[in-house]
Amino acid sequence: MSKVQFSVQVRLVSNLERSKEFYATVLSCEVNDWWAVRDEFALGFKLIQAARTEDVQPNIAGQGQITPWDTYAYVETHPELDELYEELKGKGAEFVQEPDLQEADWGSWKDFAIKDPDGYVIAFGSGKKH
């Protein structure tokens, strides 16, 4: 069986140059004419200029979901998540979900989410305290 090497999410955007700037500046992605990627494609997007602004349609919340997500990315530990939060905060990210720690019988989960210029929500989470 062939191995998939990486994947990217395709994003229709209303202003390609503005989106490239956001993904480069706020998310620290390497951006070129085709990709916006971070950490060797651990987080990857293909940004495409929409023909019409109304074609840009971020996800809506699912049943029981408070914050709708378009992308959900993981980091190893809560301290790494806190570090990423501070990094994005320092770069002017717009937060739609502040860091939230949830405890369960199986352990703990912590996550937060930001919004890009077109309203796409990118969430980050961790399941380990240390």
Structure description:
The protein is an alpha/beta fold and 130 residues long. It has one domain: Roll (2,3-Dihydroxybiphenyl 1,2-Dioxygenase, domain 1), CATH 3.10.180.10. It contains two helices and eight strands; from the N terminus they run E-H-E-E-E-E-H-E-E-E. The chain has helices spanning 16-25, 78-90; strands at 9-13, 30-31, 36-38, 43-49, 71-74, 94-104, 107-115, 121-126. The chain has a four-stranded mixed sheet, covered by helices on one side. A four-stranded mixed sheet has the order 5-8-7-6, with helices on one face. It is globular and about 50 Å long. The N and C termini lie far apart (35 Å). Residues 5-127 form the VOC domain. This is Glyoxalase. InterPro entries: Glyas_Bleomycin-R_OHBP_Dase, Glyas_Fos-R_dOase_dom, VOC_core. Pfam families: Glyoxalase (PF00903).
Give a brief outline of the structure:
The protein is of the alpha/beta class and 130 residues long. Helix content is 18%, strand content 36%.
Essential attributes:
130 residues; alpha/beta; 2,3-Dihydroxybiphenyl 1,2-Dioxygenase, domain 1; 4-stranded mixed beta sheet; 2 helices; 8 strands; 18% helix; globular; Glyas_Fos-R_dOase_dom
List the helices and strands and how they pair.
Blueprint: E1 9-13, H1 16-25, E2 30-31, E3 36-38, E4 43-49, E5 71-74, H2 78-90, E6 94-104, E7 107-115, E8 121-126
Parallel strand pairs: 1-4, 5-8
Antiparallel strand pairs: 2-3, 3-4, 6-7, 7-8
